[in-house]
Design goal:
Blueprint (H helix, E strand, L loop, with lengths): L1 H16 L7 E3 L6 E4 L6 H13 L4 E5 L4 E4 L13 E9 L5 E12 L3 E7 H14 L6
Antiparallel strand pairs: 1-7, 2-6, 3-4, 4-5, 5-6, 6-7
Length: about 140
């Protein structure tokens, strides 16, 4: 009887965790934009291909407009390290009109059982993007 109880508990835990979001998920209706000022030695013509190259190493690009300074990736279902159908992330990059600042946000969604997609942001993705963008085109803070 004890063995059956453990199996039942494990099955119940598995059902409850189906559709659980990773710890880096934060539920929000409007993801926050992060801004990185370009270094003085990096103009828009140099920054644009560097930022796009950075994105394409992790994502497929869904929308790309150099004239508008805008790029959005396709949804990525492997951000957690495993292929999953219930958690996805994407990112949007938008350069400021004067092309001196690159703004970006992360969007994340997880599929909550019986409730559909829940919107939010992924803090790990946002931190990774900030670190990567700062490292290649960003002005250092003092």
């Amino acid at each position: 009887m004890k063995g059956e109880g453990k199996v039942l508990m494990l099955m119940l835990l598995a059902v409850v965790c189906i559709g659980c979001a990773p710890p880096s998920f934060v539920r929000t209706m409007e993801p926050t934009w992060v801004s990185v000022e370009l270094r003085q030695d990096v103009d828009y013509e140099k920054a644009w291909p560097i930022v796009i190259d950075l994105l394409t190493k992790r994502f497929d690009i869904a929308i790309l407009s150099k004239d508008d300074g805008y790029a959005r990736t396709a949804w990525l279902y492997t951000w957690t390290g495993d292929l999953t159908n219930d958690y996805r992330v994407r990112t949007t990059v938008k350069f400021s009109p004067d092309h001196k600042v690159v703004n970006f946000k992360s969007e994340a969604e997880y599929r909550k059982q019986w409730a559909g997609w829940v919107q939010g942001t992924d803090t790990r993705l946002l931190a990774t993007l900030k670190s990567d963008i700062m490292g290649v085109v960003g002005r250092t803070t003092r």
